[in-house]
Amino acid sequence: MSSIFSLSMNLTSSPMLGDIAYFILWGMLFPLLAMVSFNFLRHKQCCYEEKRKVPPGEMGFPLIGETMEFFNAQRRNQLFEKFVHPRVVKHGKVFKTRIMGSPTVIVNGAEANKFLLSNEFKLVKSSWPSSSVQLMGSDSIMEKDGERHRFLRGVIGTSLGYVGLEPLVPRLCNSVIFHLAKHWQGQEKISLYRSTKVLTFSIVFECLLGINVEPGMLDIFERVLEGVFSPAIMCPGTKFWRAKKARMEIEKMLVKVVREKRKEIEGGLQREQDGMLLSKLICGMIQGEISEKEVIDNVVLLVFAAHDTTSFAVAMTFKMLAKHPDCYGKVLQEHVAIRRNKRWGENLTLEDIKKMKYTWQVARETMRLFPPIFGSFRKAITDIEYEGFTIPKGWKVLWTTYGTHFNEEYFKDPMSFNPSRFDEGMPQYAFVPFGGGPRVCAGYQLAKLNILIFVHYVVTQYEWFLLHPDESITMDPLPFPSFGMPIKIFPKHT
Ligand code: HEM
């Protein structure tokens, strides 16, 4: 060892040779050190696992573990069939693996979902990849714990909860009517998925937050979203690099909007009571309860949380309606009956929405079979005892929607499309497209209104046909129809 050191000392007298020696040295030492530390860690882990009973399963290759199998299955939208299910059969509902460098326990079943999701902050905390945190912002609600999380949810909840819905309904109706007039009228063929993305974006910005959508904004946001799950490599040309640049553009734009709105509110030009979420957040800022960064980060997060999820749910609902004409007939009946009691051009009310019971069953059954979010990661903040196993502190834990949605134990004939199954109750935490516990989706009610109101106006105004009835779904990492779900449309002459 000392001879290697002295060799390097001699060579470093010439700067050029010094660099070469340095690289050669590290080239030799690095693999050695990596092997020693890997073996040491593996030995430590084996001792730990012998003492405590960690769940069964395989950790795959050194460091990368089973990451490739996980991503390959995910990309083909076969995470359940190719990754989760074979391991459940082999090891049981709770099994260990290693994904993206972290030892991870995957839990399946309603009891496991309940245990994990309701113990947020006590046993686990949410665990997002570094790229997501950097792009969404470290001050968004997804990064907050305990009291701060409760406070921010309270503010966001006043606009997104049941009480905030009444004024949202007419705004959403106007948005949908405007969208159809601008993007559907006069067209023969459109991409349904693209259309729902444009609509969802303007609903979050204009109806919820109260910010005007300027040309080009959607593209910049989509560039940010593209990097949210990519490796956090800040090299020119990477997805993450592009996303980070887009995030900076958004930040600049939002800071301007926030400061202008703050001036308006402080100058008495605009009262908080415009009911918009941005005004509520800014009032919190004026009172010193919320920082400017918290406002910006949460605006970005809300767009991220709503965007691909709602658009996919709407698009797949239409796909299911096209594939199940009997269900479509019942949905149409529901909406024609509601329209019949309205004057021409009269908006829907919250009471009308409550009458869309069957449509909501169709949407929920769609999200059961095609969950927009397959599950999410948590990190154990203490050793967790579950079902006779120990999930060691620091390990990741993944709950999945598939673990219950595709399980005969909770849903009879689980792979068949049967919206009427929602006539009956089901075990808690079995139907979890919106998650559960303290981090249950904050935008559940908005997503529901978005889906129902869009279905209402489309089915009462248009006939449509899928151009690729067997279009596949790609996941990257959220699911989307591979060709954007092109449809042929014809206005109804009613
Ligand atoms: C069909 C559409 C949607 C689906 C399927 C969905 C699903 C989910 C899920 C599964 C979670 C929990 C994630 C976890 O446990 O880590 C979540 C959280 C969240 N969602 Fe949604 N979401 C949808 C639409 C929306 C919309 C429209 C908004 C708001 C504009 C929204 C805002 C949020 C927020 C803020 C959180 C984080 C809550 C927290 O950390 O306390 N979501 N969503």
Automatic annotation (TrEMBL):
Belongs to the cytochrome P450 family. GO terms for molecular function: heme binding; iron ion binding; monooxygenase activity; oxidoreductase activity, acting on paired donors, with incorporation or reduction of molecular oxygen. Pfam families: p450. The lineage of its organism: Eukaryota, Viridiplantae, Streptophyta, Embryophyta, Tracheophyta. GO terms for cellular component: membrane. The chain crosses the membrane at residues 20-41. Its cofactor is heme. This is Taxadiene 5-alpha hydroxylase. One of its GO terms (biological process) is sterol metabolic process. Its main location: membrane. Keywords: Heme, Iron, Membrane, Metal-binding, Monooxygenase, Oxidoreductase, Transmembrane, Transmembrane helix. It is found in: Membrane. It is a single-pass membrane protein.
